[in-house]
Amino acid sequence: KAGVTQTPRYLIKTRGQQVTLSCSPISGHRSVSWYQQTPGQGLQFLFEYFSETQRNKGNFPGRFSGRQFSNSRSEMNVSTLELGDSALYLCASSLGPIRSNSPLHFGNGTRLTVT
Amino acid sequence: AQTVTQSQPEMSVQEAETVTLSCTYDTSENNYYLFWYKQPPSRQMILVIRQEAYKQQNATENRFSVNFQKAAKSFSLKISDSQLGDTAMYFCALGLTFGTGTRLTIIP
User: Fold this and answer.
1) Disruptive mutation site among A54, A101, A108, A111 for chain B (greatest number of B CBs within 10 Å)
2) Tens-place pLDDT, residues B61-108
3) Is any Cβ of chain A less than 8 angstroms from the Cβ of B10?
4) Closest Cβ opposite residue A90 in set B33, B45, B52
5) Which candidate in B6, B45, B89 is best for mutational testing of the A interface (most A CBs within 10 A)?
6) Which of A90, A106, B51, B94 is the S-S candidate for A35 at Cβ 3.0 to 4.6 Å?
7) Residue A37 has pLDDT above 80, yes or no
8) What are the CA-CA distances from residue A102 to residues A62, A96, B21, B63 (Å)?
9) Greater pLDDT, A8 or A97
């Protein structure tokens, strides 16, 4: 089975721009979650989608949004980029919702640099 | 709200030694699942081990084992006979919430 695929791997944007990141989960996985990883902050939860519905949302401003399609692929959008948005964005998929015993399977991440 | 705390930002041990990474958490739920994930340098994050809270027996996966103390809300990871390939960031996770990680370096 193919693993979780995130595209693109690297992005460089300037402040004020917007960006869309993509995540294709493992086949058969219906849950996709997104995390922001920065040094010293660990992984900060952004949101989780299960069967096209947002089930949980972390404490991020409304500039961060996402969606999930019928094939379970997910996109995350960040508008009006700020320097502090520079981070590694990780996508993870799982068979069941996050609060189940299904472990998360992570992609390689998208490294976003905002200048 | 759930919280996960990893109080050891960095650790290093000699190859073949045993090392324990600590994790404490807080939750109001009775049944939950705890995980340890490993993120090698420039590589994908992968599951190391998981524990179901209602199971008293500590989980074990080869050289990796946990010491799960439900009353104390503690979930430490023990790595026995450490190998160079164990060098990585280790994250403790509870549901949606991850700790800040412990950077483990195995010294040859």
Assistant:
1) A101
2) 999 999 999 999 999 999 999 999 999 999 999 988 999 999 999 999
3) no
4) B45
5) B45
6) A90
7) yes
8) 28, 6, 23, 22
9) A8
**Is the CB of residue B44 less than 8 Å away from at least one CB of chain A?**
yes
Query: Cα B12 to the chain's mean position, in Å?
Result: 15
Sign of torsion over alpha carbons A95, A74, A92, A53: negative
Pairing label, strands B46-52, B60-61: unpaired
Whether B33 contacts chain A with CB within 8 A: yes
Task: Pick the residue from chain A with its C-alpha nearest to B34.
Answer: A101
Instruction: Check residue A24 and give its pLDDT.
Output: 97
CB A31 within 8 A of CB A93: yes
- Cα torsion angle, A106, A107, A111, A112, sign: negative
**Residue A65 confidence (pLDDT) above 80:** yes
Residue type, A104: L
Structure confidence at residue A55 as a pLDDT band (50, 70, 90): very high
